[in-house]
Amino acid sequence: MACLALSLWAKEKSRPETSEPPGPPTVEGISGYPKAVEAVATLAAARKLTRRPALRGIVLDVVAGDGTIDVNDVGARIRYTFQSPPGQGAQPPREPGTLPKRITCGKQNVVLTKQGLVAEPDQADYPCPPGGVEPLPEPQCTAKELWKLARKRKMPRDLPAHVEYFRSKAGPAWRFEIVGMPQHKFTLYGDCKRELTGSDAHGTVP
Asked: What is the pLDDT of residues 23-40, one digit of tens each?
């Protein structure tokens, strides 16, 4: 009986962690909801909605000239992307006691729309990037600061912007672009003090 119990315990322990279904949208912790949402200030609330610990990127759509987002605007959205270290976190289902077919890092997006913050279904089978998962540090600047620089460059402030926080070849980076005007675009290092150009600016949010 002891051997049987030990066998059942070992079988249960060998089961991979599985994804949990997302909860309903929430407005708790959203800074400035609904008309003047600040993406960086809302990051902490987004983290609470996923079990994946590594921030991999932030994408902001329809960012107004003051650096905030009105979630009632058409197309307005914020996406926070999280992953896990290789082989950690929720994994694709498999038979207990068997090895995974491949190591995954998974991915889960937490998005903000006019309904509030909500986690999208976890993607347990999402592959790991080359070199593994390197988390982004806490953002050191905001969309408001990026817009200040855009105005200094004489970019039109009456049009919304598309903003990304991602890992570039040079490290953490911000990309700013006026919607529909790709000529009005720049990329800065994560502290927003140094412009990145050429291959240093390459990179995307998973």
From this structure: 999 999 999 999 999 999
Domain limits at 98? 21-201
Residue 129 domain-assigned? yes
Is residue 14 included in any domain, yes or no?
no
SS3 for the chain is CHHHHHHHHHHHHCCCCCCCCCCCCECCCCCCCCCCECCHHHHHHHHCCCCCCEEEEEEEEEECCCCCECCCCCCCEEEEEEECCCCCCCCCCCCCCCCCCCCECCEEEEEEECCEEEECCCECCCECCCCCCCCCCCCCCCHHHHHHHHHHCCCCCCCCEEEEEEEECCEEEEEEEECCEEEEEEEEECCCCCECCHHHHCCCCC
Q: Residue 157: inside a domain, yes or no? A: yes
pLDDT digits (tens, 9 = 90+) for 10-22: 344 446 788 888 8
Read off the pTM.
0.90
Interval 91-142: pLDDT, tens: 998 777 777 778 999 999 999 999 999 999 999 999 999 988 999 999 999 9
CA distance 74 to 114: 10
Token pair in block for residue 68: 């905030």
How many domains does the chain contain in total? 1
